[in-house]
Amino acid sequence: MIIGGFAAQAQAQSNVTIYGLVDAGLVSERGGAAGSVTKVTSGIGGQSRLGFRGTEDLGGGLSAIFQLETGLKVDDGALDNTNSALFNRLSYVGLKSKEAGCLTIGRQYTMLYNAMSQVADPFGAGYAGSIKNLFPTAGANTRTSNALVYVTPTMEGFSAEALYSLGEQAGSATAGRQFGLGLNYAQGPLNARLVYNNRNNDTAAVGSTPAKLQDTGRNTLFAINYDFQVAKAYFAYGADKGVNSAALPVANAYGYAVAPKASLDSNDLLIGVSVPVAPAGTVLASYTRKNDKTSFNQDADQWAVGYLYALSKRTSTYVAYAKIKNKNGAGYTVGNNNEAGSGNKAFNIGVRHSF
């Protein structure tokens, strides 16, 4: 839905778009301490959401832009957050110019997560085969608040972007801050991104509680895909170092006597493919590996397959399956876009509609 109009004084054209995604299906999980889990859940391929985005033409190639987006659960109608934030997914305002680029302020995606979901993963960070099962997307690696993001104009397929998120902790200018850098290329069948994310894990002193100083979390990712028409190939390689650089999605899903350790030094690898099949289907497949380089050597491998069928431009059905092999006490789980999962195997079947 688009609501259009003209500003009374500036006579600048503006519009607001209401959009959303409704995704729900059946999930069956096996192998975890919780045993066999079968449930109806929301956001399997992509989190169900309701959003508003708008632009106002300010003249001279300059526009004001904003976006507000909240997550919701189709299975029970609840908001998809635990902190009562209304627009927990996205909340920003900014200015965009064809010549000068785009600057936005507020709660936004990191370029690390955008590279994973938009370029690296044939599953688009959703379904059982999600890249999120082994690659580091927990917490502020996906979205960060109080952020300023600048994106350059695109020249010959190249663009660059930078993010700076203020920690906003009293008494410290650095505690909790985050910054990222990205170099992008998209032209013809080739799409590639090289990104870096740095997260300060310090906490400032509060009253009698002293400050806590920790190592930073540092993530570097190269992601690329190439469309051969008969198939699209995907590749991603990441390096994760420091505290919270590769946080575990679930603390101890398998009930081990000794809980798994979040790696402080690891590499990630993904190789994938999507193949269009007549008349309106797409086959997805990927292999993902977590290589823990610490002394614990808690590696994991994931194999995943899926099938999407487009009933229309806005509605599709899907089925997906993935299995993880954990090594040396690793505790990774097969989840989906909205949930971390409970075991080492999962099957999804569902439907999604966008508007």
TrEMBL record:
It comes from the Bacteria. Residues 5-328 form the Porin domain. It is a multi-pass membrane protein. It is found in: Cell outer membrane. Keywords: Cell outer membrane, Ion transport, Membrane, Porin, Signal, Transmembrane, Transmembrane beta strand, Transport. InterPro entries: Gram-neg_bact_OMP (IPR050298), Gram_neg_porin_domain (IPR033900), Porin_dom_sf (IPR023614), Porin_Gram-ve (IPR001702), Porin_Neis (IPR002299). CDD domains: gram_neg_porins. The keyword Coiled coil does not apply. Homotrimer. This is Porin. It comes from Pseudoduganella danionis.
